[in-house]
Design brief:
Layout: H1 6-9, H2 22-34, E1 40-44, H3 51-63, H4 77-84, E2 90-94, H5 101-111, E3 121-126, H6 133-144, E4 150-156, H7 164-167, E5 171-174, H8 180-194, H9 200-210, H10 214-228, H11 234-241, H12 246-257, H13 261-273, H14 278-298, H15 309-319, H16 324-341, H17 347-359, H18 367-378, H19 411-426, H20 436-447, H21 451-468, H22 470-476, E6 480-485, E7 488-494, H23 498-503, H24 506-520, E8 525-531, H25 542-563, H26 565-574
Parallel strand pairs: 1-4, 1-5, 2-3, 3-4, 7-8
Antiparallel strand pairs: 6-7
Helix pairs in contact: 3-4, 5-6, 8-9, 9-10, 9-11, 10-11, 12-13, 12-14, 13-17, 14-15, 14-16, 16-17, 18-26, 19-20, 19-25, 20-21, 21-22
């Protein structure tokens, strides 16, 4: 005799044999007992949870030779034929291979004939969602008003793919995933009947592999028995199924929560040496930290967690070491790492980085504590330093960003002059920005460029040109004023630059002469010269000068922000650093 796998050998034959689907079996038994059996049923749920088995049991209950009964006898000819799948009045149709409209038309033609020997002619269509739209449409009328001797039972794992017109004509029963303890209990009964020696821990590993499916769990158990025989050890189960040892998962959680970076890395090394999947180990860590978080949140999980009493006690001890916020941060890190492992070629490195980050993670400060510290800070009181973190050192002042223009001796004095100007503004003086002589004279004096008056002449002229000719004024901001005086204007442009090509145009020179005469009040000679390098005896361009002033102003603002007592207290409170300093716009003084 050929071997019969456990999933077929121990298939439920009565409603009382259904595990974890009491809500379905009780409803069907009440319907049979009360004579309120519908003409069409739709069984939905995950794979291996008892949909097809329930359809067969219902068919036997309706056609049993002992009469309409809630528990078929399983000994009469009709029950045995249905169990073996060769009854002439119970048709089991695979919806995946009989998807066409012609198949449904043949079924519809067969419906009008009375059953041969049974009470009802029953059609069980598995994976009914695979039927085509035309096939569903061909079934609609028959499904709504079938002959009294016909019953339909549909089964599917994807009810959302079944048309609503079909759903509305059926009584729907949703089958649940079977809880882990129920699967373990059923597996224990089966192995005891089979005479197999196996521990409850190994059965729990098999049941977890089934993921809520009784059929998958029995198939996995069959595989284990084929490998181990009648005596099964926990190590054999772990090696065969490729699951991670539960002890390693617990040790990994303990190393993270104890901030033991070395211990966490050693756990990863053990996982790698045993040949376990890094991504599977990450899955198990995610599930375990989820268990810890739920225990921390609710205390008594009830049916929320499928764990033994020993595991619950150990996880409660882990929960006492961490706050809710820390557990959520650990889960976020693990979830991100698991997603990265799916596409990376070095999963061990990703897992090591994740565990190092988790183990070195500073404890989160509760929001209430932060609010209390902010209130104390606003009132001017002292802020108590954190006891769980070292006092951060004051961040060093960042150097001012270097300007892209070539360095010249004139750059430093200009920066010094602009720094003095920014310092005066930051100390509260409201100096007017409309006085060009006050701004240009320090830079002009420092560079030796014909004095403050000459610098003022150039700056004023460029502003006047920009007011009338914005594009021409923008070009003048990028050139060097070699010599500027009333009646004479000599401009230097770097060779190959766009400004040189533009300003050497005769029309542009004539336009500049007219603008200069209008600004200075005297006829002005304009000369454009080509420079191979920035001149050392000339002032920087207005664009360079503005960039240097902006850089120095930002550096001054950062130094002032780092030295401010409120900012220093906030940095210490949040254990952070100053990433960026932004200057707030000054409010105009209101007139009284």
């Amino acid at each position: 005799m050929s071997y019969l796998v456990l999933a077929r050998k121990w298939r439920p034959q009565t409603f009382s044999d259904l595990v974890g689907q009491e809500h379905v079996s009780q409803t069907l038994k009440n319907a049979i007992d009360g004579g309120r059996v519908a003409h069409a049923f739709l069984f939905t749920g995950a794979r291996g949870v008892g949909k097809t088995s329930s359809a067969r049991i219902l068919a036997k209950a309706l056609n049993c030779e002992s009469g309409l009964t809630v528990e078929p006898c399983n000994s009469c000819t009709t029950c045995l034929e249905i169990t073996d799948g060769n009854s002439v009045d119970v048709f089991e149709i695979d919806g995946a291979s009989n998807t066409g409209v012609d198949d449904i038309r043949e079924l519809r033609d067969n419906i009008k004939y009375l059953p041969s020997r049974s009470r009802y002619k029953i059609f069980i269509i598995d994976e009914v969602h695979m039927l085509t739209t035309n096939a569903f449409n061909a079934l609609l009328k028959t499904l709504e008003e079938p002959p009294p001797h016909v019953k339909f039972i549909f089964a599917t794992t994807e009810p959302h793919k079944v048309p609503i017109t079909i759903l509305s004509r059926c009584q729907r029963f949703d089958f649940k995933r079977i809880a882990l303890p129920r699967i373990v209990s059923r597996l224990r009964y089966i192995v005891d009947q089979e005479g197999v020696q196996i521990s409850d821990e190994a059965l729990a590993v098999v049941a977890r592999k089934g993921d809520g499916s009784m059929r998958d769990s029995l198939s996995t158990l069959d595989q284990v028995l084929a490998f181990c025989g009648d005596s099964v050890t926990d190590a054999d189960v772990a090696a065969l199924l490729g699951v991670v040892d539960r002890r390693l998962i617990m040790d990994g959680c303990r190393a993270v929560l104890d901030s033991d970076v070395k211990g966490a890395l050693e756990i990863v090394a053990q996982v790698d040496s045993f040949g376990y999947s890094m991504r599977q180990f990450c899955h198990e860590l995610i599930n375990q930290f989820r268990n810890i978080a739920i225990l921390k949140a609710v205390g008594e999980p009830g049916e929320l967690l499928e764990l033994s009493d020993a595991e619950l006690a150990e996880l409660r001890g882990f929960g006492e070491k961490s706050a809710h916020q820390d557990l959520q941060r650990h889960l976020s890190i693990l979830l991100k790492s698991e997603a990265e492992m799916a596409h990376a070629g070095f999963p061990r490195l990703i897992l090591e980085l994740a565990l190092m980050k988790m183990a070195a993670l500073a404890p989160a400060i509760p929001v209430q504590e932060l609010l209390r510290r902010l209130d104390t800070l606003e009132q001017g009181g002292p802020i108590a330093p954190r006891s769980d973190a070292p006092r951060p050192q004051a961040p060093a002042a960042r150097p001012a960003p270097q300007h892209a223009a070539p360095a010249r001796p004139a750059a430093a004095p200009v920066a010094a002059a602009s720094a003095s100007h920014a310092s005066q503004n930051s100390n509260g003086s409201h100096a007017s920005h409309s006085a060009p002589a006050a701004q240009a004279s320090p830079a002009a004096a420092a560079t030796g460029f014909a004095g403050a008056a000459t610098a003022d002449l150039w700056g004023g002229f460029v502003r006047a040109v920009k007011a009338k000719k914005p594009m021409l004024g923008g070009a003048l901001e990028e050139v060097y004023p070699v010599r500027v005086s009333q009646g004479h204007l000599e401009i230097g442009c770097l060779q190959g630059s766009f400004q040189l090509t533009r300003l050497q145009d005769p029309d542009q020179i004539n336009e500049l002469k007219g603008l200069a005469q209008a600004h200075f009040g005297v006829p002005t000679q304009v000369k454009v010269v080509a420079l191979s390098a920035p001149p050392s005896d000339a002032a920087p361009t207005l664009s360079e000068k503005k960039s240097l002033e902006d850089a120095e102003r930002k550096a001054t603002l950062r130094r002032e922000a780092e030295a401010h007592p409120l900012v220093a207290a906030a940095v210490e409170m949040f254990d952070g650093e100053i990433a960026e300093v932004q200057e707030l716009p000054r409010k105009e003084a209101t007139k009284s």
